[in-house]
Amino acid sequence: MNPFGSSLRVLQIARVALRHRLDALLEGTRFARVLRLLKPFVPKARAGEAELPRGARLRLALQELGPLFVKFGQILSTRRDLLPPDLADELSLLQDQVAPFPGEEAAAIVAAELGAPVEQRYASFERTPLASASIAQVHAATLADGRAVVVKVLRPGVHAAVARDLALLRALARLAERVGPDPERIRPQEIVDEIERSLRHELDLQREGANASLLRRKWLGSADLYVPEVHWSHTSERVLTMERVSGIPSDDIAALDAAGIDRRKLAAKGVRVFYTQVFRDNFFHADAHAGNIWVDAERREDPRFIALDFGIMGTLPDVDRYYLAENFTAMFEQDYRRIAELHVEAGWMPASLRLDELEAAVRTVCEPYFTRPLSEIALGEVLFKLFRVARQFQLTIQPQLILLQKTLLNIEGLGRLLDPQIDIWSVARPVLAEILHEQRSPRQVAKLVRQRLPGWLAAAPDMPQLLHDYLKQAVGGQAELAMRSADLRRLADISHAGQRQTVFAILGAGLLVAATLLYALGAGGPSWLSIPLPAWIAALGGAWAFIAAWPR
User: Does pTM top 0.70 for this prediction?
Assistant: First the structure.
């Protein structure tokens, strides 16, 4: 979108806000003053709309503005601990009660995607949708063998609508890079990249089917979470057919109580499922609002969740998952020094800052909360205040963590809705400890070594040539070592203190043996498959130490 198009979109947003009389919600802000200037040029509200409650007017405005704004409303609706009840109740309708598109149009899309009229592909297909959301709507159907299914159909024109708002976000990100504070740390373009990636994935229903299939496999037979089956013969990029399930929306407290569901046990299970998905599976449901998370009404004493809508699933790089797990553990143990160290080690904050100052700032935020009963501590509130403090210490925004942060707040909101007295910290702590203990067990380490051994062995024959090339460059004064990670920067500091050569010269002595061995292999020595694994590990470790110790 060009700048002119972005400006028109901004004006359109302001116009919709005024037409739905949302200026009262923004009273006292700069945006409210701008809206007042535009008010004379905006048509009056539709008949009767001006008398609607503010929540209903906000919901209608977000629906009119399109999928990206509906998503924003869905996220807000999950935080009943932060929103007034009237706004939360209305925004929750955005989860599955967005204005539908015609059923005949949905049937035409299904026929075009599956290559035959719906009457030939399904024994029955209901034109009236069961639910309608910002990206797609869902219709009840029956397969030829009698199995009940639901058919999810992508909205017509949704790609263009999403592209339009993403272009606006992209233009705003470029503006923020030019005139905003600290764009290197806030990284607006990368944040928009992450949002775009998530939305593009959500617009591909075949990908959503693959997500559901993987999640079902990981939780098959679980007493905590059920994932419906995907019918691949009736699925394409714009159509997804899945097993039809029944349940109670997880925010319908009256229905849950009427069904005799143990809400306290259910809330604790929700926290455990989230931490297990993140830290055991590294594959978590990242759109966990009540419209997508139901409760199995048939299991009263041992309730379980039913997951729906798998368009947005989250994964994390291993290094971020490690630092997150360590951060949570340190927070559970109130180890503020460790939290400060981890943020620097992860590269989320500059290595030049003073750890004692960061530690004191973290302690200042967290300590007042730990004087309360743990059930009264809102993790989202703590994280928000920590984030605000971290910005003062030049925190670098991590776009890859945005989905996790959003989901964490959703899960906390759901947990507190189901059980206002839930002690989220004490529920999460043993789950995380058990997962980390299992991942670091000798059996798991051995499994990891077995997985990576073929790659190590495949790379081993190249080591003599790489080593020869480096030594040749070093002798000619052409070798350079780029120090990029936080760990390597700290090693560089050690070298300035005069300790580096001593430390790494000792480690590098192992390189002599490794180099000799590798040279012999390259010259037609014994088969490299016969070399024991410890020798390869020593060679690789020795090479790293020798390079690190090489004088500048």
Answer: no
